[in-house]
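thread: overnight batch results

M.L. [08:02]
morning all. the overnight job finished for the chain we discussed friday. pasting input first so we're all looking at the same thing
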Amino acid sequence: MTAKEKVPKGFTDEERAAMKARARELKTEAWASKNRADGERDVLAALTAMPEPDRVLGERLHAIMTASAPALLPKTWYGMPAYANKDGKVVCFFQSAHKFGARYATLGFNDLASLDDGAMWPTAFALTALTPEYEARIVALVNKAVGGEGV
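M.L. [08:03]
and the structure it wrote out:
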């Protein structure tokens, strides 16, 4: 097989589904970004639709997020659970491993998160399990992320 034959000819089914989910989210974002109950409902629905172990990781992460960063609003972003500031801008998100056929789920932070540490710092973390130690590290990261001016 040549290199030219290996190049995908467009978006995968998973990528197209994520873009469609994001388009639906944008239609409702103006009012939903300020409505915690609707955002919570959407996040819980997204988590319920996930297969294990992603669902278990996502549900635990959601509990951690809502307890440690109550100022962040739950919402979906590209069909995945996310947590936004008061302006509706996503600060951090959970990405299921299953949705994109990845080896691990991801906890990611956008540029609004104040995780800066010199000239280089991580903005995404692989998740395969949540132990008390890792949960404490996530709480510390989230607290640092929301501690900045942009959030």
